[in-house]
Amino acid sequence: MLKDEIAACCKALKLSRNLVENCDKIEAQSHEEYLLKLLRLELEHRDASRKDRLLKNAGFYTIKTFADYIFDEIKLPQGLTPQDLKDCKFLEEKKNLILYGDVGTGKTHLTTAIGVEACKKGFNVKFFRTAALVNRLVEARKGGELSGLLKQLSKPDLLFATNGAMFLWTAKGRSYCLIFDGQSYRMRQSLMRQLS
């Protein structure tokens, strides 16, 4: 069957089965236009697959987005807006972010939302809880593998470590400090449940 032969060729050329699935869907006026449309669909498929892989490999505990995030109780430094965070402008500027505030004020939600956006833009992101990162570093040191782990940790475009303060490292250089001075979101939700 013709499609089986196309699939075999795709496998030999290390192309995805996506080409086989799209070959019937394309309408074109010429062979060149058909080929161009098919190749564009393959590039789109590869780009989407890469971003999905980046998101999966980032290590987020849960996926959070900017969809329901409120910036009302965060003090942003001069020159940094909520839209800049959504656009990952600090990555382009090679600046770090330091998020400081009490537990439950939205730091993890914000860092995860930033990380998700960074993955969607094609950046390599790695997320750690501070204790887990320290444990990995200690184990690597004991096993004589610290230099290898440090090299591995230098590869991501964005590295998260979370605790009372949260750090997003992009490069050696200046940092933006975001202050979370609002009431704990968890505390507010608990009080609202008690009152209702």
List the SSEs and their pairings.
Elements: H1 2-12, H2 18-22, H3 31-57, E1 74-75, H4 82-86, H5 89-92, E2 96-101, H6 107-120, E3 125-129, H7 130-142, H8 146-153, E4 158-162, E5 165-169, E6 175-180, H9 185-195
Parallel strand pairs: 2-6, 3-4
Antiparallel strand pairs: 1-6, 2-5, 4-5
How is this structure best described in words?
This is IstB-like ATP binding protein. Pfam families: IstB_IS21. The protein is built from nine helices and six strands; from the N terminus they run αααβααβαβααβββα. The protein is α/β, with parallel strands linked by helices. The chain has two domains: 2-54, no CATH class; 74-195, P-loop containing nucleotide triphosphate hydrolases (Rossmann fold, 3-Layer(aba) Sandwich). A six-stranded mixed beta sheet has the order 1-6-2-5-4-3. The model has no long low-confidence stretch (mean pLDDT 86).
CATH class of the largest domain: Alpha Beta
Order of helices and strands: HHHEHHEHEHHEEEH
Strand element count: 6
Structural domain tally: 2
Write down the overall mean pLDDT: 86
User: What would the CATH topology of the largest domain be?
Assistant: Rossmann fold
Radius of gyration: 22 Å
How far apart, in Å, are the first and last alpha carbons? 65 Å
Side by side, the strands of the main sheet go 1-6-2-5-4-3
Shape: extended
Oligomeric category:
single chain
In CATH terms, what is the architecture of the largest domain?
3-Layer(aba) Sandwich
CATH superfamily of the largest domain: P-loop containing nucleotide triphosphate hydrolases
Q: How much helix is in the residues?
A: 40-55%
Strand content: 5-15%
Total DSSP helices:
9
Major sheet details: 6 strands, mixed
Regions with little confidence, pLDDT below 50 for 5+ residues: none
In terms of structural class, how would the helical and strand content be classed?
alpha/beta
Domain IstB-like ATP-binding: 28-160
Protein name: IstB-like ATP binding protein
GO molecular function, one term: ATP binding
